[in-house]
Amino acid sequence: MHCFQDTSGEPLRWYVNFEKPYLRRQGVGIDTLDLVVTPDLSGPHWKDRDEYAQLRRLGVIDDYLHRQVERAKGRAITMLDNRTGPFAGGWPAWAPDPAWPLPELPADADVPD
């Protein structure tokens, strides 16, 4: 679960990742399915559905893993509908310390594993 905000601290969206451990695939990207939710929790939508379906067709996401994802999706939607779990307290107030330096990617970050 991520809460994205702009540089002034205004909320942009909630982002719930349904993912295997990161594995960057040449020409495919990262195996993930995401639930994106508006800051007021009124507008959820699924992102990467076509890519997820393609991973299912290719066998990257097998039936066992697909059932796990479906259960996790159900739990996330139930928490959203009931305003429980991470959706219970409204937008989080935490913000990074402005004195922290911006992180930098290593020089070989674009090289597949």
UniProtKB/TrEMBL annotation:
InterPro entries for the chain: DUF402 (IPR007295), FomD-like_sf (IPR035930)
Pfam families named among the record's database cross-references: DUF402
Residue span, DUF402 domain: 2-83
Descriptive protein name: DUF402 domain-containing protein
Upper lineage: Bacteria, Bacillati, Actinomycetota, Actinomycetes, Kitasatosporales
